[in-house]
Design a protein that fits this description.
single chain, alpha+beta, Collagenase (Catalytic Domain), Neutral endopeptidase, domain 2, four-stranded mixed β-sheet, 7% strand, disordered N terminus, zinc, metalloendopeptidase activity
Amino acid sequence: MDTSPAPPELTEKTSLLPNNHVPLRRTCRSRLRNIFLAAGASILTLHLLAGTFYGGSPSTDDDKADICLTDSCIHASSEILYNLSPNYKELDPCTNFEELVCGGWRDRHDLRPDQDDAFTGTIMAENSQTLLRHILEAPYPNKSAHSGFSPARLAPDEKSADEANFDKMKSAYEACLNVDTIKEVGLAPLKDLLLRIVKIFPASGSEDKAIQETVLFLAKLGISALVSPGTGPDDKDPDTVVVAVSPPYRIGLPAKENYEDDKIIKKYEEVITTVMGALYPDKRNSVYSSVVELEKKLAAASPSMADRQDITKSYHPMTLKDAAKLTPEVGLSGLIANLVPAGIAVDKLVVTSPDYMAKLSKSILSSTSSETLQSYFLWKTIQSLASYVDATEITPYKRFVNELQGKDPDSEPERWRTCVGHVDDGVGWILSRFFIERAFSAKAKQFGDRIVTDIKDAFIDKLKATKWMEDSVTELAIDKVHNIVQKIGYPTASPDIMDPEALRNYYASLDVNATTFFKNALAMRQFEIIREWAALGKPVDRNEWGMTAGTVNAYYNPPGNEIVFPAGIMQFPVFDVNIPAYLSYGAFGSVAGHELSHAFDSTGRHYDQHGNYTDWWTNATVAAFQKRADCFVEQYGNFSIDGPDGKPLHVNGKLTLGENIADAGGLAAAFQSWRKFAAEKPAQDLPGLDYFTQDQMFFINYSGWWCGKSRPEAAVNRIFTDPHAPKWARILGTMANSRDFRKSFNCPVKEPVCELW
């Protein structure tokens, strides 16, 4: 999820998980499975085509616990009541639970002009952003300002390192905030890069060598043109770092389906012509139309989002020699040789889409003129770096990006929000160190560990009770759960963010200046690219995290067999040590269960207890799984929103399968964990909510996490690109699949629509 405004850059996805979720290492084949990618829910234009709920009324509890009247409990109660529909007592939870839980949220939250969507997680992320702003705009904290949960007890030389780290972070922030200087600099630094591209790749007479040199030049800037090279764990040898080459995650527009929309294409051509025409007035306008035609071909050759998610379709190991033959024009051998560290030989790589690579060579590049290719390379650079410049020549593109997302064309987030995100992207581990000091505690870490451990125990119990898995597979599955590594809060290695000297060493090669925003941004990109490729020749560093500590998200990493929960998601209302546990188990516990369930979803099931991509399920178990998985595909495929043509646009049940399975399994494991916890430590009720039982409050807090709004245009693009279903569908579908929900609300039919665990 990305709760910070997205930069106006459509060609490059620097990580699978937007700064919400975001792996720091740029890899074209990251398989992290997270709780959400996008921050929106499509609820304004939905059609519910599947009647999956049945009437019922809230059950009562004759043995009401005492009421919690602490400040934290009163706050929690008021938030929940604020979000519930004003007439929640009149609504049937078995048929209208999303409205019951979120009706008040929608009435009381509007999207800002610069937002395409928002939900409860957005508010959490913006609360974290505000805290980070206070940190960045304040002086280095003195001794009295340090909490006990920080590197406050520092030796003099360590304090110096801590302050030096703080100063580097603050310089990055100040350079980003200095809009006067950014405007004064204007297009100059971008034009310098464009001039270098023109020299490398002339508009006429360019040969394959020029393509190779240009792709390499752009790759070193973090720009994917024609292909996207990267590194990451080898799925079949997860302790080894391997090179991978993929189609660019985004060709130019947000989704490949956008290239089939004539209105979008027409506007896109106009924007390219306007922007490029202002920069290169001597070029023929027809060249810019040919750039769009080239992108159309690239998009058509690219795999679908569902296929990108499918490990069985995207893992193609081969020798470098054989891979290079697929697209000789790109020169993979030379490209990789210039990216890997000196002395490292690459013999093997993974090509995620051989079909794309072959089409790129045989039917695309062979029919594209040098003039078109040059314009394409220039346009990719402009798209990728547009957010780092302030110039009227680039304004049409920024307006176009806003329009694609349904936002006010001239809207932009408050500058401080952009700059907090910029710092988190560039020196995120330094920022994490100060975030942890202000927003986390040893008590929170301990409770988070307890919940995650409880979820693992509950999932093992569910595996033991599963009838459709053969015994041999069940034993291996239980072993896999035991082997799952749980990371809570923040990293203590690679780097240890509480060790100032370790942080200073980590960022030692990154130069940041308080006045050079564009230069800083490029340096940050190049720092991550160099760090990514430097991993070659070394064992996979399993201590690394893919998200900074303040990120409001979580993920499961299949090759690492690890579940990771940054401190950012362990905040109110999802998690709080000072409120009744059924709220934290309902929200954070379900997040933990969701990530753990990914170990056995349509992707995770292909990885064994050590993170190896291998067939460890029997044929009978696979067949039984597939039958149940097909139920989820059909169920979610019946949800729809209004499409751009006014017709229903259905959720892609195959693309969202893994996430829908994880939602169902996570909720089930979390509820079982909560009931076990409650038997040991009875919880108090919340004031003003005695209409609901504690079990029912578990489901209300879970669903309240997904309350949100989305602009229609953003909702459409997420149907095309997001492996998560819309937020409203995640509530309705998951409740329909929860036996425990149906029992807790006394629904007439207790059987779930779809069920795995």
